[in-house]
């Protein structure tokens, strides 16, 4: 068996047929009473260039304060156990930062030894579950129940009980 191939720019050896011809770049024209009108697509409004550009900051451009906040928040989110969570949360607070209003962050703050911090987290979580469904429902229930059963402050226990009753079944 012999395979023949030609180079891309070499001329064809066979006579070109109608199917082999390339499509013309000119649009077809319609003749209406002897007047030729080209068939062109509908005129589109010229696209205006946007005046402002959105530019994202690169990681190199983040100031030291933001870099420190992210580092401390990352350490806090990776902490396991009440003692480690309390230690990392206190370090974060001592850095002069406020915890973000996110369920995961506030849920972890419920494990803090200081009941005042846990009360702040409960209040924030009560507002957050009005806006969106609880993300980690079993953990949410467990931590709220622990506060409800073991907190020293009566008001904190009642707040935890009300929040637990608001959770979906």
Keywords:
single chain, 169 residues, mainly alpha, two-stranded antiparallel sheet, 47% helix
Topology (elements, then pairings):
Elements: E1 29-32, E2 35-38, H1 64-78, H2 82-94, H3 103-109, H4 115-131, H5 137-150, H6 154-166
Antiparallel strand pairs: 1-2
Helix pairs in contact: 1-2, 3-4, 4-6, 5-6
Would you write up a description of this structure?
With 169 residues, this protein is mainly α. The chain has a domain at 63-166. Helices cover 47% and strands 5% of the residues. A hairpin with a 2-residue loop joins β1 (29-32) and β2 (35-38).
> How many helices in DSSP terms?
6
Oligomer: single chain
Which structural class should the secondary elements be placed in?
Answer: mainly alpha
Largest sheet: 2 strands, antiparallel
Distance between the termini: 74 Å
> Which term fits the overall shape?
elongated
What is the strand tally?
2
Approximate strand percentage: under 5%
Rg from Cα: 34 Å
Helix/strand order: EEHHHHHH
Strand order in the largest sheet = 1-2
Which spans of ≥5 residues are poorly predicted at pLDDT below 50? none
Rounded mean pLDDT is: 80
